[in-house]
Each structure stands twice: as C-alpha cells, then as structure tokens.
Amino acid sequence: MKILTAAQTREADAYTIREEGISSTDLMERAAKAFTGWFENKFQPGAEVHIFCGPGNNGGDGLAVARLLHERKYKVQPYLVGDISKASDDFNVNLKRLPQALSPIHVEQESAIPEFNSDACVIDALFGTGLNRAVTGLYGQVIEKLNSSGATITAIDIPSGLYADSQTPDEGAVIRASYTISFELPKLAFLLPQHEPYVGEWHVVPIGLSQQFIAEVKSDLYCTQQEDVQQLLKPRRKFSHKGTYGHALLLCGGYGKIGAAVLAARACLRSGIGLLTVQVPQAGYPILQTAVPEAMTLTDKNRKHLSELPQEMEKYSVIGIGPGIGTERVTKTTIGQLLATASFPIVIDADAINLIASSEKLKGQLYKRKLIFTPHPKEFERLVGKVKNDYDRLQHLREFCLEYGCYVILKGSHTAVGTPEGKVYFNTTGNPGLATGGTGDVLTGIITALVGQQYTLEEACRIGVFVHGLAADLALQTIGEISMTASDVIDSLPSAFLHLTQPLP
Ligand SMILES: NC(=O)C1=CN([C@@H]2O[C@H](COP(=O)(O)OP(=O)(O)OC[C@H]3O[C@@H](n4cnc5c(N)ncnc54)[C@H](O)[C@@H]3O)[C@@H](O)[C@H]2O)[C@@H](O)CC1
Ligand SMILES: [K+]
C-alpha cells in the first residue's frame, strides 16, 4: 500500500471526482458514511457526541457525520469553530443539510464550549489535509480545551493540527485523539513514534478513491500488508532438498550472551533455512549443541568472544552476525576480515553494528556489498549521528541506504525497511510485547533464513519484519504483551508462516 502526501491525496480526490463524474459533495458523503460505519461499531447509539467543525472540507465531513449519526439516534451537538464566512462550498452544502433538530453552536471563543459528561465522545473535524500552518489563536485554544476535557476524541482523517507528511511546528496545538479514522490510505505521520500521543489507534476506511491514480502516482513510501507478503512467499518445491534452501552461518553469542545465538539459530531454523551452522566461542559449545540440535556448531578458538572466521567460507549462502558478540577489539578485526572477504549477503545486527559505527575504516568497507543492517534507533544513531526528529531519522535512513547501497531495517513500532533505491516500507504487524530482550536476535535469525532461501534482500526484509510482527501478534492472543518473551515469538513462527501460506477462510 502506498503512502501519499497531503498534496497527492488532494490530487487523488480531484482525479476521482473527475474520472467518476461525481461531485465533491458525493465524495464527502462517501467519506462521512465510511467514518460513521466505523463509529457505529465502536460507540453505542444514544451516546453524547460533540462534533467540532473547522471551515474546510474536514469540517464539511464533520457536518455530514453529524447528520448521519443523528439519523442513527446518537445525541449529536455540532460546533462551528471560528469564522465560517469563507467556509468551503461542501461545508456550506452540509451545513444546509443539517436537520432542524441539530442546532450548531458557533464557537467564537473557547468559553463557548461546555463541560462534557465523562462518557462523552468528541469528534475532531477542525482541520484535515488542508492544514497549511501551525494552529494557534482560537483554534489552538479550542484544541487545548478539547484535549483537557477528558472526553474520548475521534479524529476525522487526521488529528487537527498535525502535519500529514512533514514536521509539525512546535508552536502549533495538536488534537490528542484516542482514535483516528483516515480515508483510503494511511498518512506518513501515523507511522512515526513521535506522534503516538496525537494519533492514538488509527484505522483506514476506504472511500473509493481512484485505484488507477494511486497506482500511477509516484511515491517512495509504502506499508507492507499481508497480501503483499503472501504474494512474495514462494511455495517449497516437491523435489527440493535441504541444499535448495541455503546454508546459513550465524556468528553470534559471547560469554554470558550465548542465549542470543540460541534465539537467532532457533528463529533461523523455524524460518525455513536448509542448513544452519552456528559459530560460537568455546563457552557456548555445549549450550548450542543442547539447545539447538538441528544446528551444526563450530567453536571459535577464543573462549569468550568471536575472534576468527570459520574455514571454507565459500560454502555458506548468507551470514548473520552480531547478536551477543560484544565489542572486543579482536571481534572488530574479525568483522573487518569478513567484510573484506565475503561475497555473499550479510545480515548485520547489534554489536556488529556498534563496532562498524565506531570505525571509519569498517564503514569504508561497506560499499558494494550485499548488506542488511537491523538497528534499533539508538544503534542507528551510532551509525549516522544524532537525529533531530522522526522525519530527520527517515531522511538519514534513505541517505544511508543510498550512500552504501544497502538495506536498513530500522526497528520500531512500525519498523521501516530502507532500500538502496530510496524506498521505505513500513511494517504493519507487531505489538509492544516485542519490547523485550532477544526479539531482535529472533529477527536476525528470520532475515538470515530468508536471504539464504534466495529471496531478494528487499523481499527478505519485508517478509521477515512482517512475519516477526505477525508471530508476536499471534502470541499475543494466548500470552499477552506483558509476559511475551523472544522464545514465545519463535514458538509462534510456525503459526505465522501457516497463517500466510494457508490463510483461513
Ligand atoms: N477534497 C475532497 O474532495 C474530499 C476531502 N475530504 C476531507 O477534506 C479534508 C481536506 O479539506 P480541505 O482541503 O478543505 O482542508 P481542511 O479542512 O483541512 O482545512 C482547510 C481550511 O483551513 C484553513 N487553515 C489551514 N490551516 C489553518 C490553521 N493552522 N489555522 C486556521 N485555518 C487554517 C485553510 O485556509 C482552509 O480554509 C480531508 O482531510 C478530508 O477530511 C473528504 O471529504 C473526502 C473528499
Ligand atoms: K481532523
């Protein structure tokens, strides 16, 4: 699914209106019906609903929603905020369509807003994608009052005051919605952690915007969805054998962190790799052999740390390196040797990222390699330097991928996969249960397995992060967020792959 800018969304609206020969009021009615459909499933008829409408088409949506919810027996009170003498045409059409029983309150100062009952709903229809400056003055005061009212706020299309695709100025007020119901496609702002307090739980409802326009419009930003991953996954062939599915080498684990190697290895095996060799420091040998009997285990000459590459490197199709390896000097030297010699893809995680980030020499060895980095935001900053905000982080992500011709999986609630072509794919699975030690090691194992099976690096990244999040979502049903461990995510990998390859009816 593509992510469009606010300007492209307006073009999509206009294109749809032209192509379908409908009026903009018709499209607004579709949007209002789609919103109302979601609202009815969430809140019972009879609920008190206060709808705050601004002067543009977002306000027009609010007025149409007021009429539809009134027809469905909600106790609706519309508010017209600010100067509506220059309101949009569709706003005025829907103002006229309000039934007589609904008498709007004109809000010219914030004191016109009454106290709400504690179970009241507020619908925010002040501004949508037409926002073109920071919200201050009366609108800002109204937003602050609604935010502190204690009512449950549901935003139409986007929380008012939030820029859809660029940094919102600090001085602007922004609605803090519990729910945001957006039309047709998600907005970039919803995918960025800094906006969590404003966007709340977000849903996208279809309003029939032109699929042709959306397919043709240029955008480098995408959300990866279940259908995408189902299309990417390849069935296993009848006459295949373990050699068909690659031989992965994991260089993971260190003294006190052999568990990282165990987790990565188990995840790799559960993700379809044909053969797996794990090299661990001597201290890890009995642990690996006992915990992961399916993996072949090599031992490093060093008792505690990665200090050498195995013999016969050419027999491996992919390497996963990093989880639990520590940052010893000898380990850094070994990474240098690996980058100098390996011609196959390398998945680079955790301390391997930290070591590379700390060395300009190692960074200089990254060019023209097939590399996937899997940093969390702190590790990413070690690679690229301090970032100012989430948009700046995205910009750095794209620049880093372009410069080194590599893939970066920037981990987070909506993990972002950056590609060398400048594309970014946001993931749509996962939950806060993943915020626990070891889940990153699991991801390294999954991605390594997929690369080993000859998926392209882009495919491996997109499938891997989706499956990892899906496994956590399936574990959520029986284990919950609080008790979830990295091992639970591995245990749910079979269900996740089954879910994707044999979808339930
Ligand atoms: N264009 C269409 O055909 C459709 C639009 N839809 C709705 O329309 C919205 C976009 O409507 P508009 O483009 O009219 O834009 P908005 O409703 O977001 O607001 C635009 C108006 O607000 C003013 N404004 C912008 N920033 C301001 C600020 N900081 N302080 C004070 N005033 C400010 C502008 O001057 C303009 O008058 C979408 O988000 C969606 O909710 C939907 O009804 C679907 C169809
Ligand atoms: K809004």
From TrEMBL:
GO biological process: metabolite repair; nicotinamide nucleotide metabolic process
Cofactor field: K(+); Mg(2+)
InterPro entries the record matches: Carbohydrate_kinase_pred_CS (IPR017953), CARKD (IPR000631), Nnr (IPR030677), Ribokinase-like (IPR029056), YjeF_N_dom (IPR004443), YjeF_N_dom_sf (IPR036652)
Molecular-function annotations in GO: ADP-dependent NAD(P)H-hydrate dehydratase activity; ATP binding; metal ion binding; NAD(P)HX epimerase activity
Cofactor note: Binds 1 potassium ion per subunit.
Binding positions for (6S)-NADPHX per the UniProt entry: 57-61, 128-134, 139, 157, 260, 324, 376, 441
Regions annotated as coiled coil: none
Reactions catalysed: (6S)-NADPHX + ADP = AMP + phosphate + NADPH + H(+); (6R)-NADPHX = (6S)-NADPHX; (6S)-NADHX + ADP = AMP + phosphate + NADH + H(+); (6R)-NADHX = (6S)-NADHX
YjeF C-terminal domain mapped to chain residues: 225-500
Subunit (UniProt): Homotetramer.
Role this protein plays: Catalyzes the epimerization of the S- and R-forms of NAD(P)HX, a damaged form of NAD(P)H that is a result of enzymatic or heat-dependent hydration. This is a prerequisite for the S-specific NAD(P)H-hydrate dehydratase to allow the repair of both epimers of NAD(P)HX.
Family membership: In the N-terminal section; belongs to the NnrE/AIBP family.
Protein name (database record): Bifunctional NAD(P)H-hydrate repair enzyme
GN (gene name): nnrE
